DNA sequence: ATGACTTGACGATACGTCTCGTATCGTCAT
DNA sequence: ATGACGATACGAGACGTATCGTCAAGTCAT
């Protein structure tokens, strides 16, 4: 009955190609013009196979952008304004090409649908990174103990997301400096 | 050849019913489950007639929420923290039921798509209102002349939009107070 | 004034298209 | 022999278009 395990295994190379194709198409076309058929065509992976690995379109898109959207590290120069500006600058550069995808992924989450948690999850590391920067500044006395760390981190995240993703505006260095200086 | 103008006029009552139905369905179902057919059914206006008045779904949704989402006035108590908190509180209450619709509308506006719902346009009056509050404070000397008005207004807007629409979180009074106080 | 006429907005309905997601089947490497 | 893969057909839902008959609102002739 239970023969050990024979037959072919799933092909990780196909998965890699599918994710690469999804990420490419995403920056080229934007979320809503990326279709499962186009991903299949570009990657050479059959559409059916895509659905064998990911339950729906939101899932494969999320997987495709997760790596690219993760912060690489948290700067620690000893100056909160420098660190914050550096990190926010990195965030802007990273999400700008995917702004459309991010907001659309969020959109797919409407009313208890799954997918929203994905966006929050993807941006969470950036929020955490900003919190770390602020808490280090608190620890070394650069900020007071009752400084509103979480609110400030949310405001910074919100500023970037609002302008880049919602308003689709560029953010100048001057703006960014004013943002992290105005405390 | 050119007879002045005869025949029936467009029915503003039908338009009113269509917009009301769209707004209702939006809060009940969220953007992506509102269909033109459902709006037609609920309002008693034929789908074809909807397309005679609005070019696409985004347009009718935008029209439907524009009024509800507009700020009624700009508070002016003489205290920038009070005014800002009041106004941001009003913004939160207004967009919370439409959070889903807003983010979806934003999604539709990306990549020069035609089905573009003008989210930026709808939120602009709120931004302007915050700018007014800050400039009044500057005028009466409560804020310095080089205070970054626009950046602050964007950060406040971003904070609300990010938490309410993206993360779908509630915002406490404490958070709001910390936001407008931390300057 | 009155009654026939013309215009065009509306409702109903059938389509065409696109895309998601499912079902089925033969092939072929392990 | 197993089962992952590619190819293909298919069903469902939604957007947006096309077409047609109806009917009310004005217009014009008498």
Describe the structure.
2 copies of one chain form a homodimer. The first copy, chain A, has 183 residues and is an all-alpha fold. The first copy, chain A, has 2 domains: 50 residues, Arc Repressor Mutant, subunit A (Orthogonal Bundle), CATH 1.10.10.60; 112 residues, Tetracycline Repressor, domain 2, CATH 1.10.357. The N and C termini of chain A lie far apart (69 Å). At the A-B interface, α6, α7, α8 and α9 of A face α6, α7, α8 and α9 of B. The structure holds a DNA duplex (30 and 30 nucleotides).
Give the tags.
homodimer; 183 residues; mainly alpha; Arc Repressor Mutant, subunit A; Tetracycline Repressor, domain 2; 2 domains; 9 helices; DNA-binding; TetR family transcriptional regulator (chains A, B); DNA-binding (chains A, B); Homeodomain-like_sf (chains A, B)
- Per the CATH scheme, the topology name of the largest domain in chain A is Tetracycline Repressor, domain 2
Oligomer: homodimer
> So what's the overall shape of chain A?
elongated
Chain pair sharing the greatest interface: A-B, 42 and 41 residues
DNA-binding region (chains A, B): 35-54
Organism (chains A, B): Winogradskya humida
Keywords (chains A, B): DNA-binding, Transcription, Transcription regulation
Protein name (chains A, B): TetR family transcriptional regulator
List the helices and strands and how they pair.
The structure is a homodimer of 183-residue chains.
Chain A: H1 12-29, H2 36-43, H3 47-53, H4 57-69, H5 80-95, H6 99-107, H7 116-139, H8 149-166, H9 173-181
Chain B binds a DNA duplex (30 and 30 nucleotides) through residues 3-11, 14, 35-37, 40, 44-49, 51-52, 55-57, 115.
